[in-house]
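Cross-posting from the chemistry board since nobody answered there.

I work mostly on the small-molecule side, so proteins are not my area. We synthesized zinc ion and want a rough idea of how it might sit in this target. Sequence and SMILES are below. Is it possible to get a predicted 3D structure of the two together?
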Amino acid sequence: MYYSRKQEEPVEDVETSIWACTKDDCICWMRENLSFDEIPVCPICSSSMVKDSKMLPPIA
Ligand SMILES: [Zn+2]
């Protein structure tokens, strides 16, 4: 009997909506579905945030 070596399926990133800080030197961003405000402000620098998307592993 053979065991085929089980390959760990890599978790595929999915395109996820995020909010990204508009300040150039700030790298802050948050998942859209984890932000509670309709238009959040950056928790680090208080700049406004814009909708963007990012390839992220899905949340289980
Ligand atoms: Zn910021």
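Reply from a structural biologist on the board:
Welcome over. Reading the output above for you: Residues 21, 23, 26, 28, 42, 44-45, 47 surround zinc ion (CB under 6 Å). Residues 2 and 35 are 49 Å apart (CA to CA). Happy to explain the token format if needed.
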